[in-house]
Specification:
Length: 151
């Protein structure tokens, strides 16, 4: 059994939810953001907002629709930026620690099945290899001898 299959089985047995790749999340959110103004304008066109137009006027209704659309865009943008940026920031912090020689157990979002999850798994493997090489280097006798005798 391949190691990635073991990881997936371990994740699925832990009760993790299915993770949608970032590309599809972005695509759906952009379609949602693009659909908001169309839906709001269709409500205005159908006449369901006669009371709003009567109270606010056409200019006020347009301003209200614009504010609702901009608010929706900001909420979606904030949510997406948090989803995408948090694991990348964690990877960056761990890489900074490694560059200073601090080798700790990485706390990475390995449970994801998207591109960031793949990057996190590869980064964890790299940290483990680095830790193994560091341990082997510390076990080395002084002078760098590897058991070879100078004759």
């Amino acid at each position: 059994m391949v190691e990635s299959d073991k990881i997936r089985k371990k994740e699925s047995s832990a009760g993790e939810l299915f993770h949608i790749p970032i590309f599809y999340r972005l695509m759906v959110s952009m379609l949602f953001v693009a659909a908001i103004p169309i839906l709001l304008l269709s409500i205005v066109a159908v006449g369901g907002t006669q009371a709003i137009i009567a109270v606010l006027g056409i200019e006020g209704t347009i301003v209200l629709i614009t504010l609702i659309t901009i608010t929706g865009i900001f909420i979606c943008s904030y949510y997406l930026s948090r989803i995408i940026a948090r694991p990348i920031v964690q990877l960056s912090q761990i890489a900074d620690d490694l560059s200073r020689g601090v080798i700790t157990e990485p706390d990475l979002p390995v449970a994801r099945n998207d591109e960031i999850g793949k990057l996190s798994r590869a980064f964890s493997k790299m940290v483990n290899t680095y830790r193994l090489l560091d341990t082997l280097a510390q076990d080395q006798p002084p002078g760098g001898s590897r058991g070879y005798s100078k004759e």
